[in-house]
Amino acid sequence: MLSDNTSASDELACGDQMKALPLCESEEQALKPAPEVNTTPSSRFLQVELELNAHLRRLTFSEPVQYIYNPLEYAWDTHRCFVEKYCQGGQKILFLGMNPGPFGMAQTGVPFGEIKSVVDWLKITGDVGHPEVEHPKRRITGLACTQSEVSGARFWGFFRKLCGEPALFFQHCFVHNLCPLMFMAASGKNLTPPELPAGEREALLALCDIALCQAVEALGVSMVIGVGKVAEQRARRALSAADVKVRVEGIMHPSPRNPLANKGWEDVARAKLAELGVLTLLNKV
Question: ∠ at Cα 84 (232, 103), nearest 5°?
Fold first, then answer.
């Protein structure tokens, strides 16, 4: 449930099946605008992601990449639940991460998808399958995963404290990742897109940039907040190049790899969101 005050008629059923939508066929063409099968923001958003998936399947990657997970395929059920439940229309702020983490979105299909936050706060349900080839040290156990992702726990934990209920956060905001793919080396080490070979990285991010522009236009947001410098800079570049009229800002990434985040990410995030005029929208009364 969104909250104790949300009626059954207001909730979106996570288990409802979305009709299969057509995907792009030509390798030469760029991502084409998603056909509007219906006019709900969640359906338009999901269509953009389906189009992106079709193009990403055609990419190939070389060393050091040995394993590629796409939770928008094997965790589509839970991802669709998240989008249909919380992509409501009228939201003006899009928080943008970079790509899935091994114990977050890779397990749940939800951006910054730390297990407890996804299950206990966001109340996401659904089945999670498996990538075609799994690393033995990075098995997908879905919503049964017992390991917590620090970045996701910090991100969603902060907004849970701030908003109380998901309904307040999602009245104004939505959350998305620029790239849906997670990459791993033979050792199981997580590889971020900036660590990929230059040509392969640019081919990947060029497709993700186009999809981001389509998603922003489908959602109608007025501000994109990159979570971390890489997401912020990529969003600024992509949206400006496409002449999409949206404000792009950024907040510090909550990753434990970031020493500054370990010293008090919530305080830094709170100060930045206050500066951007976002904090007042999210404070529970």
Answer: 55
